[in-house]
């Protein structure tokens, strides 16, 4: 059972990474490592049951494959070719191929042969760990370093827990759990490489807790069902094992079925939509419908608006009394405001066609700051630019990103009628996917909690003459760029907008 858990877990992880279709060398190398572990452990499990000679040889072949696959994976994980060089990788690959030949020779049946393969595999894993340790020591403080430190601590903990059964020689009756421990370690590595947005320890623990609760819940349901039908449920470890395998296999199985169904039944897309996800699907359909209706809606409003404005301006030129001119001026101003509302509605509703180009974000920030500085309202406001040197380029639409920055900056200026400080800040974060952060902060009135949670909702505004589409448009533009935008604010102390964009590197 112990080896079966590791075989099933590694197989599930390998399959889930392979069918995602991502051409990512880091994930591909980890999928290869998990596949090698799965082959080795599956052969060991079947060998304990059937005792066929060829199963032992398959186990040896899987063990030999682990060494080069581990080096290949850690070579991409550390991005440091100093320790795990190409020559070292070729050496271990050649050694594994030679070992594969020896597997089919008579002396492979000797007891020491398994010990030699195990020692060879452990030597490669030690080199991988040393390369990871060296890489983490040389990393600057940041998200990537924090995530890899978790892995540095997890490896020795897994080694200790995996060999806890050695204490049985002292008369203790401890279970063999190295398969479970290594399964958890592989799952942790999967989270680190496949989900770069998880960067805090509590994020990893929360995800592991969800898996644990789902596993226990599945085991309880299965046990209750067996008892209800007068059946005899299996042991508790067996129940947990079966439930755990079902939980971690659901996503890969769903992805495989989705690919199969999309090929044979291209119209059956809703089959894989959960009942709880239909609301989200309906919201997407509403957005598409809104994008189709917006141009028609705008056309039908703008035409009569133009006629009203033209007629009012003509009458204004013919009017003799000041009171009449004033009333006609109200009509002209009202039509201009309605036309501006329609324009903003169109900007929000229609899909964007981004003109993406490699741009230096600092250059865009400087242009935006110069435009803001020309505003008459900034006489009492200090504009500060804290821009990181050698900032990597990002593939963005300059005009759209400029619109976002100016919108946020002008809102910040309005929140500081008595003066204050407007700060533009840029920085880069090194992660598995390098990102650029843009911070725009002010020392204005701030936003209360009630308004803060609705700030990006369309047509939500606290201004007397506001439309409530400015920040909704900003959020949509940033999402179209594949980035994210968030806000933090403290009333009477100021507001901070944080924009994250992917780099071109």
What does this structure look like?
There is one protein chain. This protein has 505 residues and is an alpha+beta fold. It is 64% helix and 9% strand. The chain has four domains: 2-199, Rhopdopsin 7-helix transmembrane proteins, CATH 1.20.1070; 201-269; 279-349, Helix Hairpins, CATH 1.10.287; 357-502, Heat Shock Protein 90, CATH 3.30.565.10. A five-stranded mixed β-sheet has the order 2-4-5-7-6, covered by helices on one side. A two-stranded antiparallel ribbon has the order 1-3. A hairpin with a 5-residue loop joins strand 4 (420-429) and strand 5. Helix 13 runs antiparallel to helix 15 (470-480). The radius of gyration is 31 Å and the shape is elongated. It starts with a helix and ends with a strand. Mean pLDDT is 80; it is low at 275-280.
């Amino acid at each position: 059972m112990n080896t079966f858990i590791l075989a099933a877990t590694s197989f599930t992880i390998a399959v889930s990474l392979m069918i995602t279709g991502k051409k990512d060398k880091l994930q591909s190398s980890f999928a290869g490592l998990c596949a090698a572990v799965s082959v080795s452990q599956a052969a060991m499990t079947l060998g304990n049951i059937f005792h066929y000679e060829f199963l032992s040889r398959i186990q040896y072949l899987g063990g030999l494959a682990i060494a080069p696959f581990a080096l290949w994976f850690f070579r991409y994980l550390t991005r440091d070719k100093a320790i795990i060089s190409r020559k070292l990788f070729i050496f271990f690959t050649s050694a594994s191929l030679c070992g594969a030949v020896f597997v089919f020779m008579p002396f492979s049946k000797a007891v020491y042969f398994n010990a030699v393969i195990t020692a060879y595999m452990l030597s490669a894993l030690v080199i991988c760990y040393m390369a990871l340790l060296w890489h983490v020591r040389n990393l600057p403080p940041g998200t990537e370093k924090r995530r890899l430190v978790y892995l540095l601590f997890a490896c020795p903990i897994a080694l200790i827990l995996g060999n806890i059964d050695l204490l049985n020689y002292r008369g203790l009756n401890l279970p063999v759990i190295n398969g479970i421990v290594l399964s958890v370690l592989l799952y942790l590595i999967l989270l680190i490489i496949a989900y770069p947005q998880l960067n805090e320890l509590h994020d990893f623990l929360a995800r592991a807790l969800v898996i644990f609760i789902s596993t226990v819940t599945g085991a309880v349901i299965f046990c209750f069902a067996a008892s209800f039908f007068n059946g005899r449920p299996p042991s508790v470890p067996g129940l947990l094992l079966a439930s755990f395998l079902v939980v971690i296999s659901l996503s890969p199985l769903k992805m495989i079925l989705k690919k199969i169904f999309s090929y044979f039944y291209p119209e059956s897309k809703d089959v894989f939509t959960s009942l709880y996800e239909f609301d989200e699907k309906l919201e997407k359909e509403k957005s598409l419908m809104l994008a189709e209706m917006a141009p028609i809606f705008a056309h039908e409003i703008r035409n009569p608006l133009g006629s009203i404005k033209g007629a009012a301006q003509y009458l204004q030129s013919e009017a003799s009394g000041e009171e009449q001119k004033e009333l006609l001026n109200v009509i002209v101003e009202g039509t201009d405001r309605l036309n501006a509302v329609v324009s903003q509605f169109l900007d929000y509703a229609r899909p964007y066609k981004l003109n993406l180009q490699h741009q230096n974000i600092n250059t865009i920030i400087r242009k935006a700051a110069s435009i803001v500085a020309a505003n008459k309202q900034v006489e009492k406001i200090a504009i500060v630019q804290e821009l990181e040197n050698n900032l990597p380029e990002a593939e963005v639409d300059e005009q759209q990103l400029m619109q976002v920055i100016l919108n946020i900056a002008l809102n910040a200026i309005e929140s500081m009628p008595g003066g204050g400080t407007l700060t533009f800040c840029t920085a880069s974060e090194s992660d598995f996917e390098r990102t650029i952060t843009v911070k725009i902060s002010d020392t204005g009135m701030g936003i209360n909690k009630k308004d803060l949670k609705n700030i990006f909702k369309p047509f939500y505004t606290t201004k007397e003459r506001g439309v409530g589409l400015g920040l909704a448009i900003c959020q949509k533009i940033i999402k179209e760029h594949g980035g994210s935008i968030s806000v933090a604010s403290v009333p009477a102390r100021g507001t901070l907008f944080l924009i994250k964009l992917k780099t071109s590197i």
